[in-house]
């Protein structure tokens, strides 16, 4: 299974929902980068993704986007192959 990385904050309901969806797909480990604790990490996230909101999720080297993007990927049947 590829590495899953998620830029997040402590009080983000979309981050929680993204984590729940990933766990339901068998992901047991998610590397979390808390952008609320370190403004430099938020800057790095914005540079890397071009987005300001959390969560921002990477599966392997693929930028999935936020929770809505992750859920849409799952509904389209494209999340499971990405997690293989």
Characteristics of this structure?
4-stranded mixed beta sheet, alpha+beta, globular, Glutaredoxin, 4 helices
How are the secondary structure elements laid out?
Layout: E1 4-8, H1 13-24, E2 31-34, H2 39-49, E3 56-59, E4 62-65, H3 67-75, H4 79-83
Parallel strand pairs: 1-2
Antiparallel strand pairs: 1-3, 3-4
Can you describe this structure?
- The chain is an alpha+beta fold and 84 residues long.
- It is 44% helix and 20% strand.
- Strand 3 (56-59) and strand 4 (62-65) form a beta hairpin.
- It has a single domain (4-83), classed as 3-Layer(aba) Sandwich (Glutaredoxin), CATH 3.40.30.10.
- The chain is globular, with a radius of gyration of 12 Å.
- It is built from four helices and four strands; from the N terminus they run E-H-E-H-E-E-H-H.
- Helix 1 runs parallel beside helix 3.
- The protein has a four-stranded mixed β-sheet with strand order 2-1-3-4, with helices on both faces.
- The model has no long low-confidence stretch (mean pLDDT 97).
- It has helices at 13-24, 39-49, 67-75, 79-83; strands spanning 4-8, 31-34, 56-59, 62-65.
- 25% of the residues are buried.
DSSP, total strands: 4
Note the gap between the termini. Answer: 5 Å
CATH C-level name: Alpha Beta
Helix content: 40-55%
| Secondary-structure arrangement, i.e. CATH architecture | 3-Layer(aba) Sandwich
Rg value: 12 Å
Number of helices: 4
- Tell me about the largest β-sheet: 4 strands, mixed
What is the molecular shape? globular
Give the helix/strand class: alpha+beta
Q: What's the arrangement of strands in the largest beta sheet?
A: 2-1-3-4
Strand content: 15-25%
Under CATH, the topology can be stated as Glutaredoxin
Tally of separate domains: 1
């Amino acid at each position: 299974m590829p590495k899953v990385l998620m830029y997040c904050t402590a009080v983000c309901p979309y981050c929680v929902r993204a984590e729940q969806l990933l766990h339901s797909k068998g992901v047991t480990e998610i590397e979390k980068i808390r952008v609320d604790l370190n403004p430099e990490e938020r800057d790095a996230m914005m540079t890397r993704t071009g987005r300001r909101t959390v969560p921002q999720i990477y599966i392997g080297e693929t930028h999935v986007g936020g929770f809505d993007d992750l859920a849409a990927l799952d509904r389209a049947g494209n999340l499971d192959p990405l997690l293989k």
